[in-house]
Structure formats: structure tokens, C-alpha cells
Amino acid sequence: MEKKRKTHSGQKAHIDQVGRICLPIKMRRKLDIEPGGEVIVTLYENGIWLERYENACIFCGNVKFLGEYGGKKICAFCGPKVFKAVSGSRA
Predict the structure, then answer these.
(1) If residue 84 lies in a helix (H) or strand (E), which one and from where to where?
(2) Coil, strand or helix: which one is 16?
(3) Cα 7 from Cα 4, distance rounded (Å)
(4) Residues 6+ positions from 25 with CB-CB distance below 8 Å
(5) What is the mean predicted confidence (pLDDT) over 35-54?
(6) What's the CA gap between 51 and 35, in Å, rounded?
(7) CA–CA dist 6, 60 (Å, integer)
(8) Are strands 47-52 and 39-44 parallel, antiparallel or unpaired?
(9) What is the 3-state secondary structure (H, E, C) of 63-83?
(10) What is the pLDDT of residue 79?
(11) Which residues pair with residue 50 across a beta bridge?
């Protein structure tokens, strides 16, 4: 995992009786996590890492025919358009 820059100070969060963690609203807004949204939880020896789960094309929001490049989801429709734009190709 790449080293990430800390953008928000640590803040205490409540864990309820069934083990759910309530993320502070400021953090959810900063990460654009809506109620009911999903996060990826990674366990480390001394803590956990939470990140927003994205399962849609970063360009158009399509949730079908997804591939991944550089950790980002790109659909089969946007992939060729992006390649054409960055390569200068007129194909």
C-alpha cells in the first residue's frame, strides 16, 4: 500500500453493541461517503485502514464492463476514449 498523506486529524468514534463504527460527518463528507455507502476495511497489526469503496467508472459512473488501471475503475466504453485522448491517436 502506498504511503498516504494524513489530511484529517484523528478523532474518536463510537463502536456500538454489534461492532459498527460511526464515522464522523466531516470525514464522510470529505470522502463523499453517503449513508449506506460501502468502505474497504484493511486490518494491520496495530490498526485498521478505511477507504471509500468505488465500484463504478471514474469517468461516467457506469457499473458494468469495468476494468481497473492504477487502482481506478474504468468501463469498456471510456477506456478507448481515454487511450485516444492521451495518445493523440485519431483511430
Answers:
(1) helix 78-87
(2) coil
(3) 9
(4) none
(5) 85
(6) 14
(7) 28
(8) antiparallel
(9) CCCEEEECCEEEECCHHHHHH
(10) 92
(11) 41
Conformational region of residue 12, where left means phi above 0, alpha means psi within -120 to 50, and beta covers everything else: beta
Residue 8 has pLDDT above 70, yes or no: no
Bridge partners (DSSP) listed for residue 41: 50
Residue with cell 485516444: 84
Give kind and range of the element (H or E) at residue 42. Answer: strand 39-44
> Would you tell me how many other CB atoms lie within 10 Å of the CB of residue 4?
8
CA distances from 77 to 15, 28, 56, 74, 84 (A): 42, 30, 12, 8, 12
Please tell me the distance from the alpha carbon of residue 74 to that of residue 18, in angstroms, as a whole number.
36
Q: What angle do CA 23, 24, 28 make, to 5 degrees?
A: 75
The grid coordinates listed for 55 are 465500484
C-alpha cell at 40: 474497504
User: What value does the CA radius of gyration of the chain take, rounded to a whole number of Å?
Assistant: 17
pTM of the predicted model over 0.70: no
